[in-house]
Design goal:
Blueprint: H1 9-17, H2 24-43, H3 58-63, H4 68-94, H5 99-111, H6 115-125, H7 127-145, H8 151-174, H9 177-206, H10 214-270
Length: about 270
């Protein structure tokens, strides 16, 4: 019973060290509403077209992209919003100070057997890495005073504590990244669909008997190009943000693994 009490601590810290949007479905719905309103009331505004319905500026040209445009705008806005959300969440998870300095400071305290000093650094640093390390240090102090378990059992308990604390933090760090990863492919495919639909309109205008309808032809080309541009932009931003945040999560994980290993090794060397 005594050894199981600290395991509940990381669960509490996981909720406040890596805040974020729990239900991304609402983000998609809100972005869809914004995209539809932009498409109807701004891009489709009469001031962007002449008397014959031809676009006079870029906004009117975007409107000619057709109904696929608000879909692509929804995907694009979702990527941007979730990217900002992940930036805030991972910044909070990282803590207030430099991770490398924090790791070095904790390792220095462990070499001096200064557990209280290491915990003080955790309290100052805050964030997910500090929460995992602090929970391991609490268990370290408990194992240091435990006279029942063998040395091997104590080391195994410490390792398990680090693993459990890390497992509780990881879902909050990776939250919403699968959606961004999905947008990398979905944005490109939807853009390709809009391109195909636009080219179909263009070929229909060319296939008419007599002189082709220049308005229909230009509308089809505009739809193809606008959708291609939005699809590529959505996919490109999603890939950049996904790889960037994945790398940040890996750095946090490496820091946790490094300190966790140091804690276990320090205990094994001093007991």
């Amino acid at each position: 019973m005594e050894a199981q009490k600290p395991t509940a601590q990381p669960k509490k810290s996981a909720k406040k060290n890596a805040p974020g949007i729990k239900n991304a479905a609402w983000v998609i719905v809100i972005c869809a509403c914004i995209a539809i309103c932009l498409f109807i009331f701004w891009f489709g505004n009469d001031m962007h077209f002449d008397e014959d319905g031809h676009p006079q500026n870029l906004w009117g040209t975007v409107y000619k992209g057709g109904f696929i445009v608000p879909v692509l705008q929804t995907l694009f806005l979702t990527v941007i919003v979730l990217a900002v959300e992940r930036y805030i969440a991972l910044s909070a998870a990282k803590g207030k100070g430099n991770i490398a300095k924090f790791v070095a400071g904790v390792k220095a305290c462990l070499e001096k057997k200064d557990i209280a000093g290491a915990r003080a650094l955790c309290a100052k640093q805050q964030g997910s890495v500090a929460a995992v390390v602090d929970s391991a240090l609490v268990r370290y102090a408990e194992m240091d005073q435990n006279t029942v378990l063998t040395k091997e059992q104590k080391i195994a308990t410490l390792q398990k504590q680090v693993e459990e604390a890390t497992a509780l933090e990881m879902p909050t760090l990776q939250q919403n990244l699968p959606i961004i990863a999905t947008m990398t492919t979905l944005g490109t495919l939807v853009g390709l669909l809009g391109t195909v639909l636009g080219m179909i309109k263009s070929f229909q205008a060319l296939s008419q008997s007599g002189a082709p309808d220049s308005t229909e032809l230009s509308t089809g080309i505009s739809e193809a190009l606008i959708n291609t541009a939005f699809g590529i932009a959505t996919g490109a931003f999603a890939v950049i943000f996904y790889n960037y945040y994945t790398n940040k999560i890996d750095n946090l994980t490496y820091a946790i693994d490094e300190i966790g290993f140091s804690i276990v090794q320090t205990f094994a060397a001093t007991h």
